[in-house]
Structure formats: structure tokens, C-alpha cells
Amino acid sequence: MNLEGYIVDSQTPVIRAMEAIDRNSHGIVYLCEGRRLVGVLTDGDIRRHLLKGGALDQPAGKIANRNPKSLPYEEEAKAGEVMGRFRIRSLPLLNHRGEIVKIVFLHEPSEPARKQIHIPVAIMAGGKGTRLYPYTQILPKPLIPIGEKTITEHIIDHFRAYGCTQFDMIVNYKKNFIKSYFMDHEDHIDLSFVEETEYRGTGGGLKLLEGKYTSTFFMSNCDILIEEDYSDILRQHKEQGNIATMVCAEKHVVIPYGTVDTSGSGQALKLNEKPEMSFITNTGLYVLEPKFLERIPDNTFIHITDVIQKCIDDGESVGVYRISEDKWLDMGQLDELERMKKRLEKT
């Protein structure tokens, strides 16, 4: 779901809110500050406002219901009951910061088939996974189980749902273990292995695919899962004419300590109790053009982020597709691995 069609800023003029309601065809928009829910506005609210002689340029927040019904994202199963009880047609699901991550609609028709994109996918699986020791001293990171499947199978399944059938995996550490697992796999997967003879980083490893791809392709690290519309990511990449598009998540962190701002002479200027920070972070999923591979030097250890920075410095178009933090599952560290297990084992 594209949430943008259902969310407007609380300062948006009533006329613009009307246009958003008309476009989404659900008779409603949710008013937010950032993504944090602060109100709800229906076509009925606007109609009553106009009948009273209200102005179209007035901020939508002035006429909205400031006590909208909602549920925590984890309680989605209760949505139907809540909508029935309050006789409402939609219900936003919120994360722990009160930000909308999904909207559930009453009597929503079955989800339409995902748009098929049929492009190759490169999976970077050559690293040692040192942040996941001791797990990866026994199993290579791509084969760590999440429920009844390995993390790599979850990644492949998500792409197959969008019609992707060609997969290339860059392998190095415990490569024979990985290859044996998939060669004996009961579900046929069009998966080719590209062997990295020495560690060359995500950029240097990707260079091994130069000449194999003649069209746009996805590249994914093997320890992340992005629950997003891959066809929409590809659409934005194509529309912007990018050489590379990074999928980035909006991350919010609370520092668990009080911090102190000081002057150069050592005087305390300000105390900050458990300050909060918000930033955009790279998830490890990319859409790339074949010519991107030409930008990677031969036989060199280099990270893909260094190649991307060089593209930016040279004036190439590099895009960012933003997703909410809740759509990004990362098992690169032990605490995140446990969170991913809990999330995926429910599905």
C-alpha cells in the first residue's frame, strides 16, 4: 500500500485534503506531523465544513477529528472488531512512536496480484558474518534459519512473488556448504553461484557480475529483508533515470543516557536527558544499472557504498527510496536476529 495517498500534513489546506480524498477513493485522509498520527478527516467532515461557510484555504487540522481510532501494529488481528464496534471504515496501525505504518480497510477486497517485474537479483553472501558469532562459526550467514527457512530463502521468496526468477549469489566463506544446501533443495530455484576467490567487499564482489547483466537488477545483502513493494521501488528508479537507487529506512534512536553540551573551555552549556535522533539509513537493498558495474575497479577490495559515493561525486543520478523502519528486518546483529525471527515466525 502506498500510504502517501492517505496521509496529509495537518497544515494542508482543506482543498488539498479534498483532492487527496478524491484520489484515494476511500473517503478519508489521516492528518500527520511527519508520520505521527494527529487526526482524521473524512469527506463528511469537509461537507459539513463547507455547508457552514468554511473556507477552502483553512488548514485541514482545524476541522479534523483530533481523537482518531488506531491500533498498535502488533494488534492488527483486532482491526475488524474495532472497526465494527465504532462503525468506521478504516483503521491506522501505528508503531511505538505513533507513526502510521499500515492502514486496514473494512471489507477490503483481496489484495491485487503483485506487479511482475522479472529482473535479475544479485545476493551478496560472501562475508564471514563476524557480528553473528558464534552462529556463523558453524553456519554461514546465508543459511541461518529463520523459522522453517533460511534467511536467503525468505529473501528469494519475496522476490519471486514479484516475478523475479534469476538469482546470482556471490559466495566465499563456507561456499561449498552454501552450494550443497541449494543444490539439494527440493524447490527448484534458478540460482547461480559466483565464487569470490578473495575477499573484495560488496563492491569488489559485485564486479564479478560485470557482463552478465544487460538490464536493471536488484542487489541485496544476505542478512536483510525488505517488506516493501519491489515493483514500486523499480518504478521510481526508472522514472528518475538513476544509475543506482538505495532503499533507505527512516530510523529513530533514543540515546539511553543524558548527554552534555560543553564549551571549548570545559563549561557545561546544556543537559539533554535521553535525547532522540532521527535519520535516514542505508538498508542494503539496491536497484542498479549494468553500467554501475563498470564504475567498480578491477581486482580491488571496495564497498558498494564507496562506489555509490564516487557516482555522486561524478554527477551521476543516485536515488533514495524511503521506507518506514518497520519494513526493514536486519539480522546483522544478534538482537536484530531475534527480532527478525519473532516477526517472520508469525507469518
What does this structure look like?
By secondary structure, the protein is α/β, with parallel strands linked by helices. The chain folds into 2 domains: 3-105, CBS-domain; 121-344, Spore Coat Polysaccharide Biosynthesis Protein SpsA, Chain A (Alpha-Beta Complex), CATH 3.90.550. It has 11 helices and 19 strands. The chain is globular, with a radius of gyration of 23 Å. The model has no long low-confidence stretch (mean pLDDT 86).
Outline of the structure:
The protein is an alpha/beta fold and 347 residues long. The protein is built from 11 helices and 19 strands.
Computed over alpha carbons, the radius of gyration is 23 Å
Q: What is the CATH T-level topology of the largest domain?
A: Spore Coat Polysaccharide Biosynthesis Protein SpsA, Chain A
Number of strands: 19
Count of DSSP-assigned helices: 11
CATH class type of the largest domain = Alpha Beta
Helix residue percentage = 25-40%
The ordered H/E elements are EHEEHEHEEEHEEHEHEHEEHEEEEHHEEH
User: For the largest beta sheet, what order do the strands appear in spatially?
Assistant: 11-10-7-12-17-14-18
Largest sheet: 7 strands, mixed
Tertiary shape: globular
Report the portion of residues in β strands: 25-35%
Distance between the first and last residues' Cα: 18 Å
Which architecture of the largest domain does the CATH hierarchy give at level 2? Alpha-Beta Complex
What's the mean pLDDT score?
86
Structural category is alpha/beta
The poorly predicted ranges are none
Q: Supply the CATH superfamily name of the largest domain.
A: Spore Coat Polysaccharide Biosynthesis Protein SpsA, Chain A
Tally of domains: 2
